[in-house]
Write a structure and sequence with these properties.
The chain is mainly α and 194 residues long. It contains six helices and three strands, in the order αββαααβαα. It has a three-stranded antiparallel sheet with strand order 2-1-3. It is elongated. It starts with 6 loop residues before the first helix and ends with a helix.
Length: 194
């Protein structure tokens, strides 16, 4: 039968693996946040939110800046995600748990802004320009002969992505520890007295 490790040694090994895995998850969170910010910038500037189909009277497309009420919220959300990237520099100056929580709140606010922006965006579909391209059946929240394009769908997917990233950042922020807590340190005085 093999000899078991002492409790403190086993706790040290467990804690070292825990910290290593937490750091790896933090790096993955940062990489996914970078990818998400690139997607949101592309979504924000692309004009392909709604567009023509086979049955439309006129060819064309509309983006976020054309006849849209929710573009300010989506723009603020995009800048919040970029602000999250800028907050990565705070890892050098502040406690990691604090930085994760700040970034998590920013990502949650961005998800909320994206959600409201995507819900409000169809309110501008009743304008004359959209009606001219999409037909007379076009109204608020009804596209008529037009179709939803890839940028609008990507923005909706971005809402879910921001929610998942903010949840992960909250979890990472709550699980940050010191590299080796004082409970696991071997006290030199106790060993010398025995």
């Amino acid at each position: 039968m093999s000899k078991l490790l002492p409790a403190q040694e086993a706790a040290r090994i467990y804690h070292t693996n825990y910290v290593r895995n937490a750091r790896a998850m933090g790096v993955l969170w940062a990489v996914f946040t970078l990818c998400f910010s690139i997607l949101m910038v592309v979504t924000f500037i692309q004009p392909y939110w709604i567009g023509d189909s086979i049955d439309t009277p006129q060819a064309g497309y509309f983006g976020l800046f054309s006849y849209c009420i929710g573009n300010a919220l989506t723009g603020v959300s995009t800048f919040l995600i970029i602000g999250t990237i800028l907050c990565f520099s705070l890892f050098f100056f502040c406690n990691a748990a604090t930085v994760y929580k700040v970034c998590a709140w920013m990502q949650l606010a961005a998800a909320t802004g994206l959600m409201i922006g995507c819900l409000i965006y169809p309110d501008g579909w009743d304008s004359t320009e959209v009606r001219r391209m999409c037909g007379d059946k076009t109204d608020k929240y009804t596209l008529g002969a037009c179709t939803v394009r890839w940028a609008y769908i990507l923005c909706i997917i971005g809402i879910l992505d921001a929610l998942i990233l903010s949840f992960l950042a909250f979890v990472l922020g709550n699980r940050q520890d010191n590299l080796l807590p004082s409970d696991f340190k071997v006290e030199e005085n106790e060993e010398g007295n025995d």
